[in-house]
Amino acid sequence: MTGMNLTLKIWRQAGPRAKGEMVTYPVTDISPDMSFLEMLDVLNEQLTARGEEPIAFDSDCREGICGMCGLMISGKAHGPEVTTTCQLHMRSFSDGDEITVEPWRADAFPVIKDLVVDREAFDRIIQAGGFISANTGAAPEAHSVPVPKPKADRSFMAAACIGCGACVAACPNASGMLFLGAKITHLGELPQGQPERDARVVAMVNQHDHEGFGGCTNIGECSLACPKEIPQDVINQLNLDLRRALTHGH
Amino acid sequence: MTQQTSGLIHGLYAEGDPIQDTKAPAGPIADRWNTRKFESALVNPANRRKLSVIIVGTGLAGGAAAATLGEAGYHVKSFCYQDSPRRAHSIAAQGGINAAKNYKEDGDSTFRLFYDTVKGGDYRSRESNVYRLAEVSANIIDQCVAQGVPFAREYGGLLDNRSFGGVQVSRTFYARGQTGQQLLIGAYQALERQVAAGTVEMYSRHEMLEVIVADGRARGIIARDLVTGEVETHLADVVVLATGGYGNVFFLSTNAMGSNVTATWRAHRKGAYFGNPCYTQIHPTCIPVAGEHQSKLTLMSESLRNDGRIWVPKRAEDCDKDPREIPEEDRDYYLERIYPSFGNLVPRDIASRAAKYVCDEGRGVGPKVGDFRRGVYLDFTDALRRMSKEAVAEKYGNLLDMYQRITGENPYEVPMRIYPAVHYTMGGLWVDYDLQSSIPGLFVAGEANFSDHGANRLGASALMQGLADGYFVLPNTIRDYLAKGPFEKLDDSHEAVVEAKASVDARIAKLLEINGDRTVDSFHRELGNIMWEYCGMERTEEGLLKAIDLIRALRDEFWRNVRVLGAADTLNQSLERAGRVADFLELGELMCIDALHRRESCGGHFRAESQTEDGEALRHDDEFAYVAAWEWGGDNGGAPILHKEDLVYEFVEMKQRSYK
Amino acid sequence: MVPPVATNTLPRTGPASARRTTVFLKMVMAVSGALFVLYVLLHMYGNLKIFSGVEAFDHYAESLRTLLTPILPVGGVLWLLRALLIVSVVAHVWAAAQLWRRANGARSNRYFAKEAARAALTSKAMRWGGIALLLFVIWHLLQFTIVKFNVGPDAAAGNSVGALVISSFQVWWVALIYLLAMIALGMHLYHGVFSASQTLGWSTTAKARARARATATVIALVVAVGFILPPLAILFGIVKGN
């Protein structure tokens, strides 16, 4: 089979303060081997040829690891498959489909233009404590602290987060707790992360709330939308760490 | 820098003075870095805050340097074009990072890593630099572990290592297939910690468009705020470029969509020499192009070649058949046939070229793109028979899944298709031992410089070099320069600042004004085709001369006929791309000139005219054992000027390789 | 003055307290909710006494009033319990309202199309279901504790709680209200118990999470079925008055 015809309804918004609207664009002869973003590239080439300004959307590595892309596709973060938008291919759709394309919607992720949103709130959450303080040159020999494999593996599982924001986009509360929990678990499972563990969770959760994300109510949409399949138990870990910090007087 | 020409060579370039001094200390190779660190001047901690550093790029090199200099107390301004420093393309590196820890007690050492890297670079890198790289490699692992990078571990809790890229020792540290991501996140977190501490000011969604050189020193940059479109001036005592490689000159590569040469090219135009631009690494195991719409290529770890067998049909007429129906006797396992001892595990460049040849013969497989099928089979049928599906999935599951997601074909049932793709560029801005370019005060780190990989980079060495530069080398060498500062305060009315800003404004206005018929991407795609055809896996004098003409014509058309819509004072992705493509159109020509002048084959540069009877790359050490550092020929179409830096090997003997 | 050089400590901007977080609000909900779970389990157990007859039921009700006498006055335990429950309900509702308000403010521009990845009805029904339960509890207290009004056929039922119960549930729509309320309660508990275990950090692994789900299912079923058995038994005449 070749050449799908699709109807796209895409959010267009000229700027951060502009009022946006859904605009309908028919596209024809779309190869099932195209990625979703390549399909948008093709549309943009056509728009440019017609003298219309192309649709702004973010993407960079296009191999599912940098976390820059992210679209709400027919109501699902990153579309119908468990993957990033850039790794979604048109064979996941059928001829004649109507596809809505929207930006992540959360007040903590304001729209910059069209489908591009500002996710600096995530950076600020990391700034609040998402690190281990180890100045360059101050590190001890790598083998001086063994890390039990199960802990190393769990840390790695959580560290797979790419900071794309799909968890926030999918959450009915627009909560960033999966992102946050992933970082708490990544650093908290390692011996190197222990000295700052209490302070880290308190500071990061405060920053998260301050940014205007909603609270978690354990619905689980985040994990299902996560392209890296980070499980809900990182939020559990986050809660546990906060409770411990509480008992330690934070 | 005087042009001592009695006419141009090939009508294309001139030869200038050779480079005499790279500032590397003399003496035993193992002592040189310590010597340099000791000689490098110190800066009083109280003075550091008064010294400002601009760092462009937040990948492993830039991110690590910004964090480290921030920790030291300098006033750092860090820039990236992405929405967050965590997105830099270092994140996509899969395989691992080398370090001479010798945890396996298998005979590894600093010297062996140094030796392997020099040899791997086909004797076109500097011994002093490479030794330093090997020396600090062990510190990198310590640093990353302390930051919480979750490397793979053994059950005893110690770090696991594997052997990578055909070397015989296990010195590669890894975090499943996401080593680059984990290392970058480590550097990113260290960077964000400094942002919180107030030592680093972060400018994301900012693209550097010009470097400011005042009174002979790099003193700042002109950057465009990609959200508001505002063209901003940022001044500092020193400027560091850590802006990655230029593989996107080929349009299709494994680089990120936004990876570009603009920062380094602008610096080149302001006087920084460009080193070895033609050295390009092409990776043999990428997923082939599926159609005209293709926007980028995806690499699969070459570990797949350990168990997969590469073949094409013997007859061109079998190429559109279902591969499972092609009988054994009609298959050509060409690598096993030509290189019986190494078979499917021949080095990257040999595997890549062999794939090109069989496809050029019309025996490629997969969909036709243009007139050719560009793909060869990577077949796991034997491995599945030998091992079991579970064992294969355990070892390669994530790669096979990735393949299936992209192609829609099930690799457990149908042989995969692969084809080479541009992956890394060894060339970059020329730097001395201190990583300082030929513009005083302009330092270059990571893939953006040319320094450590020679003509070819070993697997798992890119991450090593990025972090070595960022954490350990640059912070030590830049000190020596900063100790001379703070330099005289500049303000926005300085002639150099005014000139730089005006040129950026004019260029943006020009791009928006042309309003021609062709999109930016169509130019980029055409440039990519030219580069891939004539300056890709195999280069010939005739092809390169043709490419130069084609590029010049295309560049000319670009400036007459490109269509960039939208305005300058808003997020405008077409405008961003247009600026980048404009620079690629200039770089492409220099790459071809460099490839043309280097009439030998070495590493990632293969000249068809220079091969052995067996079709192996043939170096000409007597003529070409030098770094080609190119000086910009001037804005009015002046020819580039070649400065040669001779490579002297005191510790490693130059050998011709053979994989037969 | 030496300018700030290097950083070895976590920089702090503004006061950060664990008590000022949404996670803390959820803990408040979890703990107060847990108290309610214990209470409804006891309550449900008591209700089953109706199967032993009106007298046994009345006797049980009376014994609650005289529990721990004479150390405490008559009804003392009951009032302590009520006080605890009132504090819990206020805390639970207050925390829920805070989180609801935050969640509403976190996405002021809604999606045009939004599809839930799974039909998590129980989690989505927490807020409206919670309000419905609150209204139900008020109705329930008015009916059996505060006003004790009788909508049923037995005019003399006002003297005995057991008789009042039996008389009330002989009315089909009263039984229906309770049936619906217990379904709502079951759903609320199903998600609430699981959610509380998450919030309190008790289900860090997939296994523990599955266990928490199972526990939540059992509690929700036991409570809902246990509560609804007496009204249905009365409605269908299995349990009769004297």
Automatic annotation (TrEMBL), chain B:
Keyword set includes Metal-binding: no
Pfam families: FAD_binding_2 (PF00890), Succ_DH_flav_C (PF02910)
Alphabetically ordered keywords of this record: Flavoprotein, Oxidoreductase
Gene3D superfamilies assigned: FAD/NAD(P)-binding domain (3.50.50.60), Fumarate reductase/succinate dehydrogenase flavoprotein-like, C-terminal domain (1.20.58.100), Succinate dehydrogenase/fumarate reductase flavoprotein, catalytic domain (3.90.700.10)
FAD-dependent oxidoreductase 2 FAD-binding domain location: 53-463
Domain Fumarate reductase/succinate dehydrogenase flavoprotein-like C-terminal intervals: 524-659
PANTHER family: SUCCINATE DEHYDROGENASE 2 FLAVOPROTEIN SUBUNIT, SUCCINATE DEHYDROGENASE FLAVOPROTEIN SUBUNIT
Protein's name according to its UniProt entry: Fumarate reductase/succinate dehydrogenase flavoprotein subunit
UniProtKB/TrEMBL annotation, chain C:
Coiled coil regions in record: none
Superkingdom, taxonomy of origin: Bacteria
Alphabetized CDD domains for the sequence: SQR_TypeB_2_TM (cd03498)
This protein's UniProt keywords: Membrane, Transmembrane, Transmembrane helix
Gene3D superfamilies with a match to the protein in the record: Fumarate reductase/succinate dehydrogenase, transmembrane subunit
Residue stretches spanning the membrane: 23-42, 77-100, 128-151, 171-193, 214-239
Name of the protein in its database record: Succinate dehydrogenase cytochrome b subunit
Organism: Intrasporangium calvum
